[in-house]
């Protein structure tokens, strides 16, 4: 596929980053703003990425797609759906206008992560502009990484504190032939045991969640594979429309549980129930959402990790114009 790089947008990004570094002015990289709530409050002059949009290259037979940072995630997913393909990590939208660049920068995955893996496992390459206004490409089909870092993965979850992601190449996968969600009534401790037992067996479980005494699992496979798994697991089958709405409500946190003050607590999947009254579990028990005043507090990074993070920031952003966007 032949295409022409929109250099006007790239040049504008570089000019603004160069000026910000010269004037020590913080920049806040922002796409659709769907994740403004995530992390500590962002500061700085907004650098809007939405004008740099569009799918650059899509090769369904090769299972990859390249898109610019401001491309709406919904637009990308529609293009994949036309070819019966998907982003396997099931990225959350949260609101209309979610962009591809924001998806990678946030590094968040949905219910299917338990089977498919996180965002970083599907990022093949990135194009970025660092804090020195240098345009660079890493990974994918473009160039071998020579910077000493796995830069493509490093950008996942960086929240715009290292560089502006201008373009990303993603691995895509075929959609499952069939899916079926099952419901089981059981207490949390038993659900944790069951989820971990099932995770150790050759079952096509693509998502799991427990809340308010109900364990829900999703099977994704061929028709015969789902039939076989259903016979082994039992449970009550959930109508397709209801099931899709349920998993989407977890993906985008529109489920009633997420109303109010909620905290995300990653733990080893076999961790016993936390001493918190209101909880929702995902990822075979490896992700606990807790609500209420008695939240477990997140651990601060170790001194070694904090030092490493600071060194990486200085490599990509020596003037510190991106770091203030998401203060620690």
Could you explain how this protein is built, in words?
Residues 142-147 have low confidence and may be disordered. The strands form four sheets. The protein has a seven-stranded antiparallel β-sheet with strand order 13-10-12-11-15-16-14. A five-stranded antiparallel β-sheet has the order 3-4-8-6-7. It is of the alpha+beta class. The radius of gyration is 21 Å and the shape is globular. It folds into two domains: 7-174, Uridine Diphospho-n-acetylenolpyruvylglucosamine Reductase, domain 3 (2-Layer Sandwich); 178-291, no CATH class. The protein has helices at 7-23, 73-81, 100-106, 113-116, 151-154, 188-199, 223-233, 240-251, 303-316; strands spanning 27-30, 45-48, 55-59, 64-68, 85-86, 123-130, 135-139, 163-171, 173-174, 178-185, 205-211, 214-221, 236-238, 262-266, 278-282, 287-291. The longest helix has 17 residues, at 7-23. The chain contains nine helices and 16 strands.
Q: Which fold name corresponds to the CATH topology of the largest domain?
A: Uridine Diphospho-n-acetylenolpyruvylglucosamine Reductase, domain 3
Question: What is the CATH architecture term of the largest domain?
Answer: 2-Layer Sandwich
Low-confidence stretches: 142-147
Provide the succession of SSEs.
HEEEEHEHHEEHEEEHEEHEHEEEH
CATH class membership of the largest domain: Alpha Beta
Provide the descriptors you would attach to this structure in a database record:
5-stranded antiparallel beta sheet, 27% helix, 7-stranded antiparallel beta sheet, Uridine Diphospho-n-acetylenolpyruvylglucosamine Reductase, domain 3, 328 residues, globular, 16 strands, 2 domains, alpha+beta
